[in-house]
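Suppose a classmate hands you a notebook page containing two proteins, each written out with its sequence and a corresponding row of structure tokens. How would you begin to make sense of it? This section walks through that situation. The first entry is reproduced here exactly as it would appear on such a page.
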Amino acid sequence: MRGKAFIGLWRKEWVLMKVYYFVILIVGLVFAVGVSGSIQEAHMFMITGVVLVLHMFILSALLMYSLNREVNQLQLFLHSPQSAAVLIGVKFLQSLLFMVVSMTIFGFITVLTAKQWVVLTYGELILAVVVANMFIIGQSLLLAVLLLFLWVIHQILRTYLGGLSIVISIILFVAITGITSMIRSTAFYEQLVGWGKMKIKMESVSGDLLSVFGVTVHGDMPGGIPVVLGELLAWGLAIAVLYTLSIVLMDRKVEV
């Protein structure tokens, strides 16, 4: 029964969003081809790399757009026999799946078009694109759950404050991102999450190439890209906490 309900919600979400999925793909492709052909010294792989970086915002944009489409019928949306975890989960998963598919397409184009300009094997190029995509997906997940949390807060506050709730949500966004940035720059944070250091072996791949995809590498990359397991765990924990809080608040506090 739950499987049928999930499939039904998945199909409903597809009908709601399919046009926007195709529009995003087409706009991205047209942008990449148009810009690479109009800017001097611009190569196709560099532009598709930029498009890959822009995917960092696609998950959040799709999720927020889909949720706001439901606002006009919020009573029907929230009074579904399915829990908020299922209702939001379907939207989240479908948007994430589209993002991964889109990134795979642009990553494939990047690898093919970069080969004539970059002295790397196809294997090295693919590894560079995969690492960049993992970084982008991690960033996009955190941004998406933060905006989901603030969207839920907005829905709760607007019952009492009306349009002022949007202003409060924006202030909260600025405050949360600012405080998070300050915490991450402290020595205490480094001590807390700076364990489990390892490297992704990429001896032939330069930091300059990865910077095309938005991956900032500090230092000269001796032997590969540094990865800190403690920071990855903190990242995953922040995503899980924000998502869980959003679902719990939506179930218990959002009124229609």
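The notebook's second entry, a different protein, reads as follows.
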Amino acid sequence: MKKFALFFTFFLFFGFLAAEDVKTGEYDFGDITVTLFEEREPEPEPEPEPEKEPEPKPAEPAPETAEMADLNKSLRENHVKPKFFYIQPAFGFGTGLSLYRPTIALNADFLVGHTPKVNFYVGLDLDLRKPMFEYDMLNPIIDSAIQTNGVVDFQVGNETELRSISIWTSFGLDLAYAQDCKKDEGCKSATLRYMPGWGTGFDFVFDNYVVFGIGLDGFLGVYPDLTLLVGYRF
């Protein structure tokens, strides 16, 4: 009888659970205690993190074209350190009061300062000239000059065939080996005469270091002669 009552009690209890929701907790049925637990809903699975977009790689520099390589090479060559010392022989002629005189010139200059665009030189300017005329009172046989000079050499760049343009000025002695001549007495023995010497002008230096010079030189210490020269800068 006791087992039947216990079975009937369980039957009623589970029927009650089926009819309505039952709170969780412990229930005491005489000799038996029943503990009910609230059914938990399964926890939602974590959403997968979105994949990170790969960071963009830095753009690689474009390969150097042949034209750019030639340009960079030319720029590097154009900005090399200037020559510490150069020798510039030249040959040409002068004209003016001397009418026509072949000229040999030699410049030797040392670098004393420079910037990326300008070089500064000082040195010697040596000239040897042969006047091709005779005055009524003077017959110049040989005219020469020993002078100090200063050169400002401007770098031109790669836009033209020129490497640089030099502005020069020189001062010193003009030495003339000449004869005194008179109509009735003729010419006396030649003597060496000392006069002030001067000159100024431009030198155009090409990429192959050929130089074209144009300037004014003092003739017999006073008279300006136009001088044209072609030379080479070593």
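A careful reader of the second entry would note: The mean pLDDT is 78.
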